[in-house]
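Task 17 of the worksheet. Students: predict the tertiary structure of the chain below and write it out as structure tokens. Keep your answer in the requested format; marks are given for formatting as well as content.
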Amino acid sequence: MTEVDWEYVGGVADSVASSIARTWFIVEKDDVKQHILLNAYERRTTLEEHWEDSAFLYGFCRKIGNQYASAERDKRDLEDGQFFYTPKEARAALETFVYSDEELGALLGQRDDLLRARVTDSLMSARMDASLAMNRLPKDTQAALMKRYVFGLPAADDSERKAANRAVDALVRQMNRDLRKVTA
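Model answer:
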């Protein structure tokens, strides 16, 4: 282990933060740099072993910076007062994937009771948005969603259940991003 040259790390963090701020209009360069350096300091034992490897240091800074920018965008999306999908709505949309459009249209208004409408126009919109968003997700995330929520297969273990929940969260984030692209 060697002593970390924080001035060098700061220079790499500054360079990466500039790049991220140009790509993600939602964040400022100084905020990204500060977040990267804070995480670098918190993980300094790992950094002490690898900081001289420029590829490692650049990748470390880029990953932390992108995570920060993504979290800031998600926070903004939740606070902007516009409609956003919830995980419950995404799961309901996924469960309709077993029906064709014609079958789902025939169900519209058929399964209602005095307390709620089970198939509504908003479910049809959510289904279309979920379908588009699914195509933008990684293949393993798509597979987890299809297995658990479309085909209804139970999770084999706790890690598979957690993976399915993370996949729903990823789907919701993508649905909300796509929704904002259309309305923005």
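Marker's comment: Residues 112-119 have pLDDT under 50 and may be disordered. Residues 54-79 form the longest helix (26 residues).
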